[in-house]
Amino acid sequence: MKLAAVDIGSNAIRMQITKVTFYDGSYNFKKVEYLRFPLRLGLDVFHTQKISDLNRRKFIKLMKAFKILIDLYEVDDYMACATSAMRESMNGKDIVQEVKEEIGLKINIIDGNREAELINKSLLRLIDERAYLHIDVGGGSTELNIYQNKVKTASKSFQIGSVRALEDKVQEPVWQSMRKFIEKNVSPKARIISIGTGGNISKIFELSGPKTTRKYLDSAKIEETLHKLESFSFEERVNKLNLNEDRADVIIPAGKIYLRAMEMANSQKILVPDLGLKDGMMQVLFERRKTL
């Protein structure tokens, strides 16, 4: 069985093709293709509320390339989901319809709750009876989910993201709304553990020190890593730290979003698994196909 997931974000667009193998009563997911293209749709939308003609043309070309790969790999099922930038753009639905008619690729524009639900599909195996705050920072939005005793007790999406923050498009009332949400749903006595998903927290984890068996970052280590990043110019982050250009400018504002959410919840450490929206889509596709 081969499955494909396309994650159309505000800062970049990703596609993963996975082969599911079955052996001796169990199954295994093996990644056979992964592509990430730096098309920053959010930059258009957060300034003009629509995707520009230039980026529309690039987006359609990219979807053609993805559809060719999906066909070449003879994928059994796929899911393509567009998040904050596409759902907030005035011409997002028209572009999605154009892709469907011209290419035959169906794209779902999902809201923040559905986005969080899909991401959580990949996190359930990490959750135990303790209290958790799941933080997923994208280019245009941040999804928060709270778990207690292995049950999700609250979830909300906020218009706070790395590209928005970079462009100074996050309003203070939105931060206040996030704080109220956390204070309402997290007990002051709870020793809550954060879980961070998203490319920026994964890269911060990677840059934070030598790779060991540790899976957590404490807030002090995040601050230390961000301070190090701030000491480099954009060009130095790209050339000395080997960051992609579309990562080098947003990684600091993204890191500060994780820190601020952790501070609101009085959370001292964050678990950083290598999981995200695409992994949740894969799980949904697998569950759908195995019942056929």
TrEMBL record:
Source organism (scientific name): Algoriphagus iocasae
GO MF terms held by the record: exopolyphosphatase activity; guanosine-5'-triphosphate,3'-diphosphate diphosphatase activity
Listed name of the protein: Exopolyphosphatase/guanosine-5'-triphosphate, 3'-diphosphate pyrophosphatase
EC nos: 3.6.1.11, 3.6.1.40
Class in the EC hierarchy, top level: hydrolase
Keywords associated with the record: Hydrolase
InterPro entries: ATPase_NBD (IPR043129), GppA/Ppx_hydrolase (IPR050273), Ppx_GppA_N (IPR003695)
Domain of life (superkingdom): Bacteria
Ranges for domain Ppx/GppA phosphatase N-terminal: 32-282
Keyword Hydrolase set for record: yes
